[in-house]
Design goal:
about 290 residues, alpha/beta, TIM Barrel, about 15% strand, globular
Length: about 290
C-alpha cells in the first residue's frame, strides 16, 4: 500500500462542553496515528493561555505529537521568547509560526507590527530558530495568494523570507481544487522554494460558515461544492456526507499529482476526518 501521512488541526476549547468535545475528537483521531496535531492561537493571541494548556495536556496524556501555533501580535519579543522557552522546556519541538491578525479587527483592517515585537512571521521564525536550532518550524503558504499580497512575486518573496529565517515546512491555507495547489507548488519550485509544502484540507460541513471563511481568506468556492451543499439542504448527515465526498475527491486528485502528506482542519470534530482517512486508506490500498 502506498504510504501517506496526515495531521490534524484543532483549536483550544473555551468551555467545559467544548473541552469534552475536543477530548472525544482526540480519542477518535489518535488511533489513526497522525504525524502530529496542531493547536491554533486566536487572533491577537487571545487564546494564548488556552493554547498552552491544551498543548500541555496533549503532551502529558497522549501519544500524539503536538505542534503549537504562535503569532507576532500583542506580545513583545521577550514575551514570545519566554513562551517559546516554556514550550521547549515542556518537550514541545514543533512550532507553527504565523504573523497573525489583530484581535477583533474588521476583515479589511490593516496589520500594524508591534514596535517591540516580532514584526512578521519571518522575524518570529528567526526568534524561534535562535532559541532552538533543532526545532521543527512550519509556516503558512497561500495557494490563491494572501489577500494582502499584490502579486505572486510578493507572495513567493514572503515565503522565501520565512524559509531563509529557518522554516523547514509550509502548511497551506485551505483550497478546493487540486490544480490550485499543484500549480502553486510548481510556481514555488520555479522560484527556488524546495521545502515540503503540505496541503491544508478544510472539513467544514456548514456551508454558510465555509463561505464566510472563504471570503475572508480569498478562497474560491467551486460551483460543484455549492451545488452539493444545496442538494443536502438542512440535513446534517447529508452535509457531512457531501463534505466527506468532496474532501476525498480532493485528496484523490492531489495524490494523482504526487502528494502524500495532508493537513486536515477538523474544527474539533472527528467523524468527517475519520471517514476521509478510511477512504484514503481504502483507495490507496486498491492502487498499490
Amino acid at each position: 500500500m502506498r504510504k501517506f501521512d496526515y495531521s490534524f488541526e484543532f483549536f483550544p476549547p473555551k468551555t467545559e462542553k467544548a473541552a469534552a468535545r475536543l477530548e472525544t475528537a482526540l480519542d477518535e483521531l489518535e488511533v489513526l496515528n497522525p504525524e502530529f496535531v496542531s493547536i491554533t492561537y486566536g487572533a491577537g493571541g487571545t487564546t494564548r493561555e488556552r493554547t498552552f494548556n491544551t498543548v500541555a495536556k496533549i503532551l502529558k496524556e497522549r501519544t500524539i505529537s503536538p505542534a503549537t501555533h504562535l503569532t507576532c501580535v500583542n506580545a513583545c519579543c521577550d514575551e514570545i521568547d519566554s513562551i517559546v522557552q516554556e514550550y521547549l522546556d515542556m518537550g514541545v519541538d514543533h512550532f507553527v509560526a504565523l504573523r497573525g491578525d489583530p484581535p477583533g479587527a474588521a476583515v479589511d483592517a490593516k496589520y500594524t507590527p508591534q514596535s517591540d515585537g516580532y514584526a512578521y512571521a519571518s522575524d518570529l521564525v528567526s526568534g524561534i530558530r535562535r532559541l532552538s536550532p533543532n526545532a521543527k518550524i512550519s509556516v503558512s503558504a497561500y495557494p490563491e495568494r494572501h489577500p494582502e499580497s499584490a502579486s505572486w512575486d510578493t507572495e513567493l518573496d514572503n515565503l522565501k523570507r520565512k524559509i531563509d529565517a529557518g522554516a523547514d515546512r509550509a502548511i497551506t491555507q485551505f483550497f478546493f481544487k487540486a490544480d490550485t495547489f499543484l500549480e502553486f507548488v510548481e510556481r514555488a519550485q520555479k522560484a527556488g522554494i524546495n521545502i515540503p509544502i503540505m496541503p491544508g484540507i478544510m472539513l467544514q460541513p456548514n456551508f454558510a460558515g465555509l463561505q464566510k471563511m472563504s471570503s475572508m481568506c480569498g478562497v474560491e468556492v467551486p460551483g460543484e461544492l455549492a451545488a452539493a451543499f444545496d442538494k443536502a439542504g438542512d440535513d446534517a448527515n447529508a452535509r457531512e456526507a457531501a463534505t466527506v465526498d468532496f474532501a476525498t475527491k480532493l485528496v484523490d486528485d492531489l495524490r494523482d499529482g504526487g502528494i502524500d502528506k495532508f493537513h486536515f482542519y477538523t474544527l474539533n470534530t472527528a467523524p468527517i476526518a475519520v471517514q476521509v482517512i478510511e477512504n484514503m486508506r481504502g483507495r490507496f490500498k486498491k492502487s498499490a
